[in-house]
Amino acid sequence: MATPIPLNFMWADESVLLDDIQRGISEGMVKWATDFYNNKSVNKLFELDVNPSSPPTKRSASKYVLTKSGGVSPDLRTLDEIVPAEKREYARLDQLIKEREKEQVELKKRETLLTSLIGTIEKEQDQLSLQRESSTDPQEIARIKIDQARARQERASAIASKERVSQSFSSSLTVQLRLYDEQRAVWDKMKGKESEISGDRMFRLQMALRYALDGIGSESRINVIFCKAKVSSGKYQVLGEARNELTERIEVLPSQFLLWPYRYIVIDLSPGHRKTLAHEVVHLSGRGHPDARTIFKGFKKVPLLNISLPDLEVVPGGFFDGPENDIMNYKRTDPEAKDTTMNILDQVDLRNYLLRLAGKPWSLAGTP
Ligand SMILES: [Zn+2]
């Protein structure tokens, strides 16, 4: 007998729901997943059990909407893709700051040397003055005068040099302070992104509210949120994410949480990726992807320098995940369900997970 996959569809807001109804995106994913689990390679092990039934209508689905308007738009781009840009910028600024520090040390050295040079010249000038005062020999006085003129000139040029050095020092300091400011701004941006990026906290808060207010959702069903996400514009797009249980649960009342603590799935509402739902369901079992890999694509010529450098590309773990036609492999964006397979280990793990999920019967205790 097929093991049911109990899902609870939700939409980030009403406009997302209406868009979904119009374009039949979740409907297409349900159809694809149904065909997929029915196909021989998956041994007809699973069947979808979706609330509200697919296709959704405005009437059947509006209570499954997380919020009326202004729904969360999570960023599904990988951290590798976003934060490293800031990290690189941070490192670049760090380098510039260090260069300023070095420069300032040099300038300080020069300033000290010039100060002592000026001191030496001034001492010489004092001596020359004394000599001139005590001298009566016109020849000697003439020689002293020449020396005094030379000393004056040397002192003036040393003072001018010192002036230039201290100007350089203070402009270097100004640049450095500006770099520190820029670096702090990059840091704030990085930190801000980390917490905002996923929309996870907001989604969990909204799911907890939907449950507390309208009893939508349950411990034994997996919420699947359709939303308009920010996705990579690059070659490797992630359009869905399965998110784990919270390790720390905040209970308001027994079984009532401030933040929805259970596993859930987020899917970007974009057409042409019908397998996303079936793919994310496999992740529910705890299944991850192998690590990302760096692949060597050959050498690329650097113009002007006339040298060749290795051309490397980092591909995410899902890309090399088993055979190309495996449900967990990203390579084909929108294959047909009948041409897609599922690893036997993933089948076993998913079945075990679903049985465990069903073994925890939902209790209405705690419902307001
Ligand atoms: Zn995946």
What does this structure look like?
By secondary structure, this protein is α/β, with parallel strands linked by helices. The chain has 2 domains: 3-77 and 200-286 and 344-358, 3-Layer(aba) Sandwich (Collagenase (Catalytic Domain)), CATH 3.40.390; 83-196, Orthogonal Bundle (Helix Hairpins), CATH 1.10.287. Helices cover 49% and strands 16% of the residues. The chain is built from 8 helices and 10 strands. The strands form 3 sheets. Strands 1, 2, 3, 4, 5 and 8 form a 6-stranded mixed β-sheet that branches. The chain is elongated. It binds zinc ion. Zinc ion is lined by residues 279, 283, 289, 318.
**Would you count the extended β strands for me?**
10
| Uncertain segments | 360-368
**Percentage of residues in helical conformation:** 40-55%
Question: What's the architecture of the largest domain, going by CATH?
Answer: 3-Layer(aba) Sandwich
Query: Per CATH, what is the topology of the largest domain?
Result: Collagenase (Catalytic Domain)
Largest sheet: 6 strands, mixed
List the bound ligands: zinc ion
SSE order, one letter for each helix or strand: EHHEHEHHHEEEEEHEEH
Mean pLDDT, as a whole number?
89
Question: How many H/I helices?
Answer: 8
